[in-house]
Structure formats: C-alpha cells, structure tokens
Amino acid sequence: MTAETSQTLDRGLRVLKLLADTDHGLTVTELSHKLGVNRTVVYRLLATLEQHALVRRDLGGRARVGLGVLRLGRQVHPLVREAALPALRALAEDIGATAHLTLVDGTEALAVAVVEPTWTDYHVAYRAGFRHPLDRGAAGRAILAARRQPMDEPGYTLTHGELEAGASGAAAPLLGVTGVEGSVGVVMLADAVPERVGPRVLDAAREVAEALR
C-alpha cells in the first residue's frame, strides 16, 4: 500500500477477488482470516458491497459474488448468452422443448437466455428475464442441490407443475465456472419428463460451463 491508495477500497477489491475464486462462497470468519482483519471490518465491507449488489449472502451466511458485478460490464450478459446459445439451441432442438440458462440473482432464479424449439407444434413460452424463487422449479432446485453437494457432482433435477400447471422441468447445475452460479434446463408440457431428457440436460450444462470458462 502507498500513500496514494485507499486501504478500504483495496480490501473491498480483495474481497471480490476472493469470492470470485470460489464456487461455494466464504463465511465472514473465512474472509477475516484470508484478509488478516477482524470480523467487524469484514461485516462493514460486505454491507457496503451488498448495497451495490456486488456481493450477496445466502441463507447460510456465506458471501458470494453478486450479479451487480455483471452489471458493471454492460456487455457481460450478452456475452454469457452468446456463449450458451449453441448448447441451448442443440438441446431445444434435440428434446423438442424450451431450453434455458438460469443464473442466481439474490434469492431468485433469473432466466438470462432462452431458446424455443423450431419444429414442435406447441411448447412452453418462457422468456429471458423471467424470475422465480430458487426453491421452486427445476432450474432453482438444481442450483440449490449443487450448494448442498459442493464436493460431488449433482445430477439433474426434475419437477412438475411448480411454476406452471401441466408443465414439467429438468435442469442441471453449472459447475466449475468461477463467479457464476446457475443451471441449464428445459421446460415442457408433459405429465412427466422422458427418461432421456435428464442425461441430455446434464450434457448441455457441461457444454455451457465449458463455454463460459
């Protein structure tokens, strides 16, 4: 540190870098140890960063990078969508169902990219920008499953009728993408998800994760 630099800003940026380097977030105690400062300082830093949506804390108290970081770069969301679209298109056409990339935004799941199949007579209308609670719908539940199993590779999640009557969903979490917490999935008008859909969604999630690394 030199006389011309800000110690508080330096610590705040270090917090963001530390959080960006982990997929599972850090507690106040962990950040305190890594920064070499007391917990009170960390609480103040996190509160300030939260006000700007640069950091969010989950129900367990772990701090993670917030989507405000993405908003700092106006082209980041378009770049994320562009990277995911090839895998989403292939998934939608293969399954004949609407495919989507969903990211965490606070306590909600936010659809940031959606591709509808071109050859079906009907399919579920699902729009980018659609939000729903993390604990409802396959997209959010897949993300929560990844949080509960940080050391394992979670499988896919299936749901029925949680967001729309008569609609079923399948989703798998994005893994190994630093600073990004999300899932890839499909939604279809069906009483149950066909057996082959889950493994196919898992493959698509791996493809999107690879494109985002």
Automatic annotation (TrEMBL):
Stored Gene3D superfamilies: 3.30.450.40, Winged helix-like DNA-binding domain superfamily/Winged helix DNA-binding domain (1.10.10.10)
**Which Gene Ontology BP terms does the record give?**
negative regulation of DNA-templated transcription
Per UniProt, the keywords (alphabetical) are:
DNA-binding, Transcription, Transcription regulation
Q: Which Pfam families match?
A: HTH_IclR (PF09339), IclR_C (PF01614)
SMART domains with a match to the protein in the record: HTH_ICLR
Quote the CDD domains the UniProt record gives.
HTH_ARSR
The record places domain HTH iclR-type at 6-67
Q: Which domain of life is it from?
A: Bacteria
Which GO-annotated molecular functions does the record name? DNA binding; DNA-binding transcription factor activity
Alphabetized InterPro entries for the sequence = ArsR-like_HTH (IPR011991), GAF-like_dom_sf (IPR029016), HTH_MetabolicPath_Reg (IPR050707), Tscrpt_reg_IclR_C (IPR014757), Tscrpt_reg_IclR_N (IPR005471), WH-like_DNA-bd_sf (IPR036388), WH_DNA-bd_sf (IPR036390)
Membrane-crossing ranges are none
What positions does the domain IclR-ED occupy?
68-213
Matching PANTHER family: HELIX-TURN-HELIX TRANSCRIPTIONAL REGULATOR, ICLR FAMILY, HTH-TYPE TRANSCRIPTIONAL REPRESSOR ALLR
From the Swiss-Prot or TrEMBL record, give the protein name: Differentiation regulon transcriptional regulator
Species of provenance: Streptomyces zinciresistens K42
